[in-house]
Design brief:
6 helices, alpha/beta, eight-stranded mixed β-sheet, 21% helix, 29% strand, disordered N terminus
Length: 358
């Protein structure tokens, strides 16, 4: 495979890959109003930035009021939204909002939940919690110690056997992205507690900017799988092994499954980047076969990845593949991916635990 080149902009701890967002100062269908406020009598200018405006530090100015209270009211989509204030050029989380999450770069983003649709994102103390562990071991593939995150569902019993999902991060991130920005452990805990899904193990490797090719492919498919299987209760077989990822990981999930169909029985690609020149051109004169169950998701406002997903679809259709393909409103943001989690995790659970045929 040829080298894949992709540029990212890192803004206040968030990797943006052509992100798009929605914000409006007027009511609209499916949107809820919220007043953001920040108190600082000494500030000269304050802006709001977040997933609603692609983390642009200058597009949403806040208005100064009495006692140094700066405010702005927006009408944005129901759900979970991360944000910060930009105070005289300095990025700051909301001191009045206790809900926050690690931004992946040593700081925190504030978290706003609008309406009732948090999709399982929020930590709930009253439900049983799985075990999230960061594990290191000496890798023969890389000749050094490597680390990965492992989620074991609540009630895990090492004498039992569980299906396993390999969950892949985006460009330039690591094994912590899905737990610190995606809060996958909360989704699992909450959905398991209400019986929406059945238990499975999640393995989250770190792959930097590799696109999961070359050594990273070998490491995940063979060495990491073997390590997890030897030390935890993993059900063997492709019918018990799936791979899912977002952005670079959306490409990686498809790439690993397509090249290793004996390992992975199911792939979910979320907003994958399928570059024509550096990947799809390799299949111009040869078939691209998906010999595994496949679901592809992408936001219609994702200016970076939607065109590449369309290009992949043309090749898959040309070669007679059968797969799921869902395009829905959304951009290249966690707000979009969070909205997919109920459906994606339900599909994984159904794959691992198929309903009996009547």
């Amino acid at each position: 495979m040829r080298k894949i080149i992709l540029f990212a902009v890192i803004v206040t701890g968030i990797v943006l890959l052509g992100c798009g967002g929605n914000n409006n100062t007027k009511p609209g269908a499916g949107k809820l109003g919220h007043q953001f406020s920040y108190t600082d009598p000494g500030a000269e200018e304050v802006f709001l930035a977040g997933e609603m405006n692609n983390w642009n530090p200058k597009s949403i100015p806040m208005k100064a009021g009495d006692a140094g209270v700066w405010t702005v009211t927006l009408f944005i989509d129901e759900g979970v939204c991360q944000y910060k204030f930009v105070v005289d050029g300095v990025w700051k989380s909301d001191p009045a909002n206790p809900d926050r999450m690690d931004d992946g770069f040593g700081g925190f983003n504030s978290v706003l939940v609008l309406g009732t649709n948090d999709a399982g994102f929020i930590y709930r103390p009253g439900v049983p919690h799985g075990l999230l562990t960061n594990i290191g071991f000496q890798s023969k593939t890389f000749g050094k110690k490597v680390t990965f995150n492992l989620y074991l569902p609540a009630g895990y019993n090492n004498d039992a056997k569980y299906p396993v999902l390999f969950l892949l991060h985006g460009l330039g991130q690591n094994e912590h992205q899905w737990t610190k920005q995606g809060n996958i452990q909360n989704y699992m805990d909450n959905f398991l507690a209400k019986g929406a899904i059945k238990p499975f193990i999640i393995v989250m490797p770190s792959a930097g900017k590799s696109f999961y090719t070359n050594q990273h492919e070998k490491f995940i498919v063979t060495e990491l799988y073997d390590f997890v299987s030897a030390n935890y209760g993993v059900k063997p077989g492709k019918e018990n092994t799936a791979v899912m990822g977002m952005s670079m990981g959306g490409f990686g999930a498809f790439y690993l499954a397509q090249r290793n169909p004996a390992r992975f029985g199911y792939c979910i690609s979320l907003s994958g980047y399928f570059d024509q020149k550096y990947y799809l051109d390799d299949y111009r004169d040869k078939p691209l076969k998906a010999d595994f169950m496949l679901d592809i998701f992408c936001g219609s406002e994702d200016t970076l990845c939607y065109p590449t997903v369309q290009a992949l679809k043309k090749v898959l259709d040309r070669d007679g593949n059968v797969y799921g393909y869902t395009i829905s409103p959304g951009a290249h943001t966690w707000n979009y991916w969070r909205g997919l989690m109920p459906d994606a995790l339900a599909k994984l659970s159904e794959f691992f635990y198929p309903s009996p045929v009547k």
